[in-house]
Amino acid sequence: MHQTTFDSARLELYDCSDVNLLLRQPLGLGCLIGSVLSIGFRMRPNNWPASAFKNLEAFKAELVTVCAAVAAIALIPAVRWILRFARAWWAGITTVSTLFAACGIVSLLTYGPRHPILLTVLELAILSLLLLTEYLRQRPRLPAVVPPKTLNTPIAKGAGSMAGRWTASSSDDPITNWSDDIVGRTALVELLADHALRKRTPTIALHGALGDGKTSVLNLLKTAVEGQVILICFSAWLPGSERTLSADLFKDLADECRRYIYIPALRKRALSYARMISSSVNYLGGLKEVIPALSQREEIEELRRSFSRVPLPILVLLDDMDRMQRDELEVLLKILRGASSLPNVTFVCAFSLGDVTKTLSTDRALAPDYLEKFFPVSLRLSPPSPTLIAECFQTRLKNSLTQQQWFSRDDEGAIFEERIGNIWRYALETLCTNLRKAGLLINDVLAAGESIVGEVNPLDLVMIEAIRRFCSRVYDLVRINGIHLTDGATNTLLIDEDKPKAFFGLLSQEADTSEHPAAIRYLLYSLFPKYAQASSDKAARISQYKVSTDREFRYDQMAIRNADYFQVYFRSALPEEMFSNAELQRILVDLNRESVNVEAVFNEALDSIPAQSAKRADFLWKLSMAVVSSLDDGAAECLAYAAAKRAADFAYDMMNVGEPAYALNIVFHAAQKVAESHAQQVLEGAMNVCSDDTFAFRLLRNTDRDRNDILRNYSTVDHEALKRVFVQRMRRRYGLSSDTTVPSIQQFDWWAFRLWAEHSEEDREIERDFWRRFIGGSRKRLAQAINFVYPINVHWNQDPSPDIDLLFPLDELDSLLTELPDEPLDEVETRGVDRMRALRQGNFKHSPFS
């Protein structure tokens, strides 16, 4: 469909006039130059005297060619001018009296003495006929009415279904052909044509919401009346400023009329009328100096007379009025107000009534009937029916995703179609109120999904892209707050309960301020069950679209609520946050080379990206997805160890998301790749070299079968043996021989220390001894230790004393608080000491945030 439209436009571009311009004039000019050069070459220096030109017979061929070239260049424009002049003469706009008088005087003076009586009678007869003709054609008249039945409108509907014929162009272009009209705009176009051709209505308003198809209707109207009117298409927001708007409009009007008929001084008269319009607007007074002052009454009367005698109606299509500024609108309304004084001219103005009213009423309230003064006829363009939009949207979206290879089986496409129908019914129908909005949403989904085909749930992708398009502020909040919306918290005990509540409140507030709050809320409820559970809204109960089918969808495990997949949905939100696929392929080639230092290649790539940036997370994600398919076994294993060594450089949070999650995926993908032989070796090797306790704990915890979707072959995996390796690692780092200044306390993990202390009495004593050595005689170190064993950002729902005592004896903490000398503490350390004292007094729910 698009190709056909493009070819038609191209054929229109090269019409007869363009062929004349591209072929006739260059060829004629070339022949003329060639003939003149040929004459020059044939002349000898001794033949230059004037006598050389007496014998023109020698240059006959060249002279004939010169005449042909001149005729080729000038004949067609001359014929066109004669035709335009003939139309103008017959319409009473011009006269041939001057030409007749000149010819008569020449004939009388030349042949009068020989045949005085005969020539005088002949001259009088011709003069009488001329005067009668001039009188008859000077009578005022309007061109004949053209009945609507002659319009170029379709007789029958196009073949195929409406949804099948709808094309969602990525450029958001309006339709130009009747074959693309699936809404059925024929009746509206015929009504507009009737006002222009028969009723000669001066101004007509065609208003509708943005995207309802106003420009498409104007294009179809242009096609329908082609050849029956003089057509001027004017985009109201293209002129340079309001100071040149009236002049530009009437220049275009005059130029289009002169293409069809010769009207003397039409441009000057049109500019005179523009000057009159400009003088009625104070801030346009400067135009008087640009446009020469003319006798307004006579010139305007001549302009009216000229327009009234044009043999075709003049139709001016004004588009994009709703994009104009207030000053520009005031000028345009002045022009339209005076349009009734121009016979045979019809202005069809397309705009959004709400936007124009809002622009005009910036400083004052606008009366409801204000625009009625300018538009005696107003036609409302209704949007397509929701049923038609739903059919077009769902059919086009499914077909497009199928082309992007989202569905490997037919049943997957059927499940998607069923579920997207429910999403449309409860949310998208409210958001996509016309085909433009539906098409733009499809374009968004396809653009965002192109680089992540098969990596996310396409249903969730549609919903999150709908939120981005129709409520960007909610989208931005969601994108940076996945910790509160996704599943997969390491331990809910360590999450401040007030933070999710505060975030959910802010999210609801932003959703409520959107244009369609109910639809945005439904999408959020469907995407994030945590948000739905925290809401008292009844709509949250029906938001889970999965209840509509009993069939399992392959993409359900890739839902946006899954912390491991959350960031993938936003990979294309900001292009600068994406890691180049071309660069990734280069790195993969380097990693597979023999005798390469895998760790060095990985470190170079990682260090080339700013720390804690979304681009670094995207790099680790893409690299993890390429381990199985693009790396050999040896490179994959070495890469797992390299990622574990850099664990201390990743940005951690309470949820297993972002950089550390993708680095863990690298380890698990590598283990799965060699699962038949030595997956345990890969896991233990990564555990031994990892540089961060949180990474080590999550590596051990996620090796459990119920928590791991990557490692599926456990034939060579021993979880208990890996736990012993974890304990040995903790002993090496914090045992009697460890250096208490390395690693940093920022690399400590509460759950790693707890798991270590629970392993055995011996390990518990080693762990406690570490804290004694860490604290030494420093009250500042004591405060830091308290903030670790009794985290400062936690609301405890039960007495945490047993958990703290497991890590370090509470009685010993009491003694140290009493015995150690005072020293300066920062705010966080002071608050930690205060919380510990409150706990010993029985107030374990005390929080510095309360």
Helix count equals 37
Report low-confidence residues grouped into runs of 5 or more: 1-19, 280-294, 489-495, 545-549, 846-850
Counted beta strands: 5
User: How would a textbook summarize the main sheet?
Assistant: 5 strands, parallel
Euclidean distance between termini CA atoms: 64 Å
Spatial sequence of strands, sheet with the most strands: 2-3-4-1-5
Strand % is: under 5%
Oligomer: single chain
Shape: elongated
Report helical residue fraction: 55-70%
User: Cα-atom Rg, whole angstroms?
Assistant: 42 Å
The class by helix and strand makeup works out as: mainly alpha
Chain-averaged pLDDT: 77
Please, could you describe this protein's structure?
The protein has 850 residues and is mainly alpha-helical. Helix 2 (16-42) runs antiparallel to helix 3 (60-90) and helix 16 packs antiparallel against helix 22 (517-527).
Question: Summarize this, please?
Answer:
The chain has 37 helices and five strands. By secondary structure, it is mostly helical.
Q: Helices, strands, pairings?
A:
Layout: H1 2-13, H2 16-42, H3 60-90, H4 97-111, H5 116-137, H6 162-165, H7 186-199, E1 203-207, H8 214-224, E2 230-235, H9 245-260, H10 266-279, H11 287-290, H12 296-309, E3 314-319, H13 326-337, E4 345-351, H14 353-360, E5 377-380, H15 386-403, H16 410-431, H17 435-449, H18 458-470, H19 472-479, H20 482-485, H21 498-512, H22 517-527, H23 529-533, H24 581-592, H25 598-607, H26 614-630, H27 633-645, H28 659-673, H29 679-689, H30 693-701, H31 719-734, H32 750-759, H33 761-775, H34 779-789, H35 801-807, H36 810-819, H37 827-840
Parallel strand pairs: 1-4, 1-5, 2-3, 3-4
